[in-house]
Amino acid sequence: MIADMTSSDDLAKIWNAFYHLYLDPASSTFLSSQCRKLAQLSSSIETWNQSQYASFLRVCDVRTLSELRRYWDLYVAYADSPEPKKRQPEQVDLAVKEVLDKYSNPIHLGVARSAGYYWINAFKMMPPSFSYFWHTGTTSTDSQEIESATLLNPTFLYSAHGEGFVLDQESDPMSTFHLAAAFKDIKEEPVPLDAVFDCAKAQFKAWCAAFRASLRKSPDGLVIRFFSGDPLAFCTALRSRLDSGSLTACTFTRPWTTYALTLDGGDYDGLRTDAPLQFNVIETSNIMDSIGLLNLLVAVVPLISPSPSSAVFTEILSPSEADATKWFASHFCGDISTISLILDLIPTTYLSRMTTRSDRGGVLVSRTLKETVGQYYERLAWKRPSATDSAVISTQDKRPLLSFDIHQLAQFLLNVYLEMFASDNPKLASPYSSFPHYTRESFVLFLRILRSVTDVEWQPLMDRFYDVLDVDMSLLMGSNYLQDLWCQLHRYQLYSVSIMEMPLRPEGLYTGWATVPPVVTIFLVVPRSSLAFLETMGNVRPETPILHCDVKSPAVHNIYPSITIAFGSVRKTTRNGNPWIAWEEDPFGLSGDSPLIVSFNAPAWTLNQTLSVALSLRATPNTIPWTRKLGIGLHLFLTKITDASNVFIVPDHPTLPQRRRLLDSSTSQQRVEVYLDRECRKISTLTARINLIVAREKETLLKGVTVSSLQSTSCGMRVTFGGIQRDILFPFPIAGGQSKLRIARKSSYLEIVVPVKGPEDFKSFTAVPFPIAVTKSKVFSPWSLPRLNVDLLPRLDVQGTTQLHSLFAHFHLEFTDRERHVENKGKFDDILGVKHTIRSIFASFTDAWGAANHTFGFLRAKDRNIDTFIFVAGLRLDLADHSVVADAFVLTLSEDLVLAGGIKALDAIEEFPLLKITLVEEELRVWKQLLPALAERCRVGWQHGTGCKYLSQKGIPSHLGFGMDPLCHCGWGKKVEEFLKRPEWSPLAPFVTRIALSPLFGIPYLDKVLSYIKPVVEEGKRRCDVCKEGGKPKLLTCTRCKRGTYCSVVCQRADWKEHKARCKTE
Hints:
By secondary structure, the protein is α+β, with helices and mostly antiparallel strands. Helices cover about 30% and strands about 20% of the residues. It has 32 helices and 39 strands. Helix 2 packs antiparallel against helix 4, helix 14 crosses helix 21 (about 440-455) and helix 20 (about 405-420) packs across helix 22 (about 460-470). The protein starts with 7 loop residues before the first helix and ends with a helix. Residues about 540 and about 1015-1020 have low confidence and may be disordered.
């Protein structure tokens, strides 16, 4: 529709089709005519790929095209029905009433989150936006437009399960837009709804125009590929194509189907230019909340391009817990640094401990309204940790293999296993995660990643893991899942327990078989009547019941959670002398009348004729009410394994290809030894060796010369001896100040033992705290700061009380509790100083201190000499990061400036109102590391030249003192249009570099933020600051500050260490 639109009227109809529950006749006709055209073009993959849309709209597989056509046909049929507006009105009315009743006094954060920087202002108008949409079904404030919208929008009436009104109860079209622009010029509160709607429509119009411009510029440049199915299955298919070249993956398209995923859309067969199999950016939205973080990371890691700028983005719904660090670590199922080293992927904020993104408004609301909200969104960017170091990127074509001690690694794997399946024992389960996302297959897929990055002897490692798992009794239900674990290990060709390698005779259940494989597939036919119970549980029905299969007898109980489910029928047949089945899936699925067919794999040796097979619900707190009807086993259907009508055992699944063994992805000859701590939970040290081969190096070392080492880059150590320098590089940022050097003079090698850098290193910003990776092809990529195009950001006029209040509220959320505590004690650290300086620049520029300044000078504290000038041309809204950014320019007084003839231009500065900011040496050093990143993040319209000093120095300089320019000259005088708007600055224009200066915020999952905020409890009730419970029998109050409240003396004593610091200030 966007590609075909010819007028602004078409754009309005497209908006209505996208966002309105009810359509006017013109919009409805416009939608149905477009769907009719698409349905005709999608009769086959051949006709679609020859259509006018195929140049930019592609499908990954034929089934996706069939699914799209199904929807288009349904929309057309709805429009062609005699009275479409009368279809399903009662169902829609009931759904709308349910939403309005549920949110009669709503705390709905969607619009506030979208408003970003203006979250306080948006918070005041959240209820009108949300309730208005559900009352009217439109985003129009025109009464005539609302009255004419009488036809139900069919795009909300169909889903994968068939016909039925489907719209999330928290839906609000405005929450999908950057709404800060709607608030920046409005003087009244609350902001009128039509201003918010107009802002969203303006953005939608701009997006459509940009899309159309891209198509005109290069018809084949922008390609959107669709896939309808399970995201993890799609990742599996892409990896299968990448590793083996196969178009058909050993996985199903999506749940509730048994069709193998085949990339047969025409873009992966090599006949046309192949679609990409690895990506620079992978956006996962918030699916990690539903599938589990480790499942997601294991799936996407093989699909990330090796480029240093490549990133994975996730969103996670975080609880407003006191210990967010433990909550976040629980998602990793282990130590964050150690898991990240294995996956070669880490949140950028974990190492930088700061971000330009502000989600603190959500944190504040979740803490203040904990009874109602209690959660906030955290958006994370994940990158390769080694990409912080240009030396690693430019010199290592392949990542070094990790060497572990087998006993340590086996114990580490056991610890990960226990964390992953802690829900098998309620006593071990984390209080921060109650939904079990992982199966034993999840653990096996993690092992597959581990095997590809290590050089350990795999069989001895798995033997050792078998031994430690065998004696561990931590998991109450752990033994019930062991056979599933051994089964999955065998299927992925990672390990086979000895009993699975023993040949089985064709007897018992396998009588008449030609051969009996180690793993067989069991099909269980579940009658529809056994599922009726799920539809009759009413309010006690859990939202997401977890299904698994049991194979049991009075003496045995094995559980298999990796199951495949679909409605259909099976028919017994034979193939190659073994039993087989003919499978036919019911196209009507849940709406049809076929039984449910459940299949799963099991070790052949565990099956005998005394067993029963069951489809059951997993026992969770939500399923407790079900035991009254289903019994303690929670069986939906149970039958004997010998039931020939309902149980079929075959050698393999009839619709999946044979699983291929994936080759190890790394053939690197480099090794890095990894040593774990005593409990084998996290990295203790990394060790790398330099083997001296050159005769001169050997002879020099043998002479007994002094050998010294110094951290040279974020991942590198430089060893110096007898005038010789050698670099040792690690695959992870290190804390070089704590390194140890081992010297083997006779054996001619050197070893460096060093800890990895972690977020606990508050002052240890090793080498470069704001890394910029420089690749062999001269690509510059800031690692921890996101790129932005300043010229496209809305300008921000901060004149007026309302705007100043918004700015002050924004900067109030910049500091963590730790930083506030350090500041209250009169102490200082580098980053805290940088944050204060940034706030001073913003406050002075906005006239918040009574005198506006646009020019700022950094003075070195010890001699009061100016080193650097910052010129602020204006402020803009950083929509993506929910923040504000200063459009600024930087000039460093350096020898380079003198040689370039810039000294005369400095005379103009004497005429400027100048705010001088005094910096100690340590903070000045951090600024010199920050400025290149601030310049690189907004670099648009110019490139680094061949003479760039970054290239000659093989990276961004990491240790610069007073009077040394951290910036290259490539950006001098580039994109200075905003700078030249102040005529008095014009003499300096050839020597300044543009930067984008943003506030730097703390990370809630690493540092406590806003913990001093007291929750607002319903009916004015206060609760204990520690356990959040009521009094026992009444609350105690701190006699000193009268603010701290506790349910008991025990909680008061537990909180005293932290409360003591607050108590003095309050």
